[in-house]
């Protein structure tokens, strides 16, 4: 349980009374009660109000608000407010300001605007966290700490303090300059460093530039990868300093910071180790597939080995920062809230509780809209959900997820793939992972999304798409997993480099060559308009005879693996496109190209059914999502209808009670309205 003081699904979100006159506060509290809101995230951007100058701290408004909320039964997720520094600090201590990619010193403005290696920032952010912890350590409303906000949300810093810190970071990682030169292959383009001072940050002034497809390109992958690691670590260090400051006074209050799903800049697997609870902000675009949102929830759940997570933010209605900010259709906010719960969230929280009147988020949705009263569609929907969550009480809290399939996701691999400079600019790591996830999602098969360090032994099938970077120990670990009977899938462009982006010589896929029983001699990149075909071996159950493929085609030779499909066209027609290698008790599949989605679905369907990995319910209509959460011996089946129309669902033998309606279900056909949800306590 996140905090036993509140043993139900927390319901609430970001609340900024500090931006309002006190006159509205009681009105807010009245409406929180009406809508079942019982958690408020306070003080996210309160720094400049709480500390008007270097020596003055004034928490008057916060004292009053904490007490008021508590009196009304609303708990507090208390932010440390350090995601935007005060203007006086920027004026007085310019080291707090960042230097951008082109070497320009920034002025005061925006948010997420502090240099993570600024001595001023570190000093005052930690002091603020500590002051808050000292002050509120015994406050009964305090449920959890929310450190900073969406770390990494703005540009990176390239200032002199960061540069000096980078050199120290390198000394720590490599020990000697010789080791750095080796790791970065600095003989290339005459880059050999003879002094630590020779090393500068890779920016638009040195090694990097903004290329096509939103990528940051670099001359030196080794340097740029280390800078990304360093930058992620620098922010993590800031987080940890605040973490320690609050823990000193409140050792029993959990601590989190709100993450952002597949947010590229921060290695969340590393971060998760420093969080007590994972929390994240879910903002699907108007055209985001539901399966993608599902994958993000699963990625976040996987950060802490399946421990329940917090949905920290979502909009009740619309966003403001997308090109087209569609309203969530009636029922959709509720549906997406339950999607998070279905995948392991124990909170449903919004940005924001009351809509602001000025600056760039005034058109961002809120529970309380500009009209100021409760007679709105959005409020009614929020209140309905609030009542349902009250009714659910602690039933689902702490219930776990179980999956027999895992998808491996690795941030450093992602960085390396997308700064590789060849063979294609169209390869997007997250999209590749999503293809597999989507197929499983549509098949109704539960998957975990896990780190490359995760224990794989409980999974029957592990999918590691585009394992381009093979870090130390990973090849060995995968071999052991397959040896012991596991089934592994990897794809094209795998086993190419080590963690410094240095190629493993002796034939691709390098360290994975023995495991897959293949050698990839060359890699062809196809134009967006070009296709090849995969011709599937006769006698492969349930598959078509051929499928399209494209993007990249590894030209592979079998070295013992059985060939299951071959290319249909081009000069490599007849060469293997899909192979399987028996290895110990298990098998290792290598898919040498990126096929059309139908292939992935047909193939995974075969692989899963032959391993006894079953969908949760057979044959659900398209657009219906199913998951199960497990608690002790009890199972809770979530059925979510993402369609705009009602659907008929065949529950077959499933019996139980829908916790939302108390309807008892005795198997067979049931109708589920458009955007509606059932949470069936199975009997
Ligand atoms: C983020 C931030 C919030 C707010 C919302 C708007 O998630 O954490 O402060 O800006 O976006 O969507
Ligand atoms: Zn800096």
TrEMBL record:
Q: Which residues form the Beta-galactosidase C-terminal domain?
A: 623-681
**E.C. no:** 3.2.1.23
Fetch the InterPro entries from UniProt.
Answer: Beta_galactosidase_C (IPR013739), Beta_galactosidase_Trimer (IPR013738), Class_I_gatase-like (IPR029062), GH (IPR017853), Glyco_hydro_42 (IPR003476), Glyco_hydro_42_N (IPR013529), Glyco_hydro_b (IPR013780)
Q: Report the sequence similarity comment from the record.
A: Belongs to the glycosyl hydrolase 42 family.
Span of domain Beta-galactosidase trimerisation: 403-613
Listed GO molecular functions?
beta-galactosidase activity
Enzyme class, broadest EC rank? hydrolase
Record field: catalytic activity? Hydrolysis of terminal non-reducing beta-D-galactose residues in beta-D-galactosides
- Is this entry keyworded Nucleus? no
Q: Lineage from the top down?
A: Bacteria, Bacillati, Bacillota, Bacilli, Bacillales
* Glycoside hydrolase family 42 N-terminal domain mapped to chain residues: 14-392
What name goes with this protein?
Answer: Beta-galactosidase
The protein's UniProt keywords, in alphabetical order, are:
Glycosidase, Hydrolase
Keyword Hydrolase carried by entry: yes
Report any Pfam family annotated for this entry: Glyco_hydro_42C
């Amino acid at each position: 349980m996140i905090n036993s003081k509140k043993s139900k699904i927390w319901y609430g979100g970001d609340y900024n009374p500090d931006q309002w006159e006190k006159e509205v506060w009681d009105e807010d509290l009245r409406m929180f009660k009406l809508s079942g809101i019982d958690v408020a995230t306070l003080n996210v951007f309160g720094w400049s109000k709480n500390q008007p100058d270097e020596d003055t701290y004034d928490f008057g408004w916060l004292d009053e608000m904490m007490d008021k909320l508590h009196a009304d039964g609303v708990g507090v997720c208390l932010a440390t407010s350090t995601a935007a520094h005060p203007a006086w600090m920027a004026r007085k201590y310019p080291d707090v300001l960042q230097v951008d990619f082109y070497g320009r010193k920034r002025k005061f403005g925006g948010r997420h605007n502090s240099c993570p290696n600024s001595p001023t920032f570190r000093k005052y952010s930690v002091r603020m966290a500590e002051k808050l912890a000292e002050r509120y350590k015994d406050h009964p409303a305090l449920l959890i700490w929310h450190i900073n906000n969406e770390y990494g949300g703005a540009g990176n810093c390239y200032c002199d303090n960061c540069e000096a810190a980078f050199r120290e970071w390198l000394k720590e990682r490599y020990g000697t300059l010789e080791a750095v030169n080796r790791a970065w292959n600095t003989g290339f383009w005459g880059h050999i460093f003879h002094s630590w001072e020779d090393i500068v940050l890779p920016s638009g002034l040195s090694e990097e530039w903004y290329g096509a497809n939103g990528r940051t390109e670099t001359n030196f992958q080794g340097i740029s990868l280390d800078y990304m690691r360093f930058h992620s670590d620098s922010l993590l260090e800031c987080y940890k300093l605040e973490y320690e400051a609050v823990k000193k006074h409140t050792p029993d209050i959990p601590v989190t910071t709100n993450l952002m799903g597949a947010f590229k800049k921060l290695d969340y697997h590393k971060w998760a180790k420093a969080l007590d609870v994972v929390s994240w902000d879910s903002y699907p675009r108007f055209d985001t597939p539901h399966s993608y949102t599902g994958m993000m929830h699963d990625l976040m759940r996987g950060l802490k080995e399946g421990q329940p997570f917090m949905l920290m933010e979502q909009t009740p209605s619309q966003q403001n920062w997308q090109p087209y900010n569609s309203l969530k259709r009636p029922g959709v906010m509720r549906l997406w809230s339950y999607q998070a719960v279905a995948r392991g969230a124990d909170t449903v929280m919004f940005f924001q509780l009351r809509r602001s009147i000025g600056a760039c988020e005034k058109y961002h949705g809120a529970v309380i809209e500009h009209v100021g009263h409760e007679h709105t569609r959005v409020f009614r929907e929020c209140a309905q959900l609030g009542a349902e969550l009250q009714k659910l009480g602690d039933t689902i809290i702490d219930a776990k997820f179980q999956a027999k399939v895992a998808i491996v996701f690795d941030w450093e691999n992602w960085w390396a793939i997308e700064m590789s400079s060849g063979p294609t600019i169209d390869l997007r790591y997250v999209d590749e992972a999503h293809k597999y996830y989507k197929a499983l999602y549509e098949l109704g098969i539960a998957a975990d999304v896990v780190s490359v360090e995760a224990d794989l032994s409980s999974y029957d099938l592990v999918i590691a798409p585009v394992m381009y970077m093979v870090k130390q120990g990973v090849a060995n670990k995968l071999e052991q997993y397959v040896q012991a009977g596991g089934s592994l899938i990897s794809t094209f462009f795998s086993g190419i480099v080590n963690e410094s982006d240095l190629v493993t010589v002796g034939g691709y896929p390098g360290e994975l060559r023995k495991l897959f029983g293949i050698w990839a001699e060359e890699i062809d990149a196809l134009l967006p308009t070009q296709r090849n075909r995969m011709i599937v071996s006769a006698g492969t159950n349930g598959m078509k005879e051929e499928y399209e493929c494209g993007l990249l085609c590894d030209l592979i030779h079998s070295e013992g693996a059985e060939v299951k499909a071959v290319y249909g066209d081009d000069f490599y027609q007849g060469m293997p496109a899909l192979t399987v290698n028996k290895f110990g008790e298990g098998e290792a599949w290598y898919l040498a190209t990126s096929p059309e989605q139908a292939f992935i679905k047909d193939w995974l369907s075969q692989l899963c059914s032959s391993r006894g990995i079953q969908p949760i319910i057979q044959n659900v209509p398209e657009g219906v999502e199913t998951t199960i959460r497990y608690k002790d011996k009890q199972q809770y089946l979530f059925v979510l209808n993402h369609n705009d129309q009602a659907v008929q669902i065949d529950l077959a033998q499933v019996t139980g009670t829908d916790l939302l309606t108390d309807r008892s279900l005795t198997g067979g056909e049931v109708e589920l309205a458009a955007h509606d949800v059932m949470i069936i306590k199975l009997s």
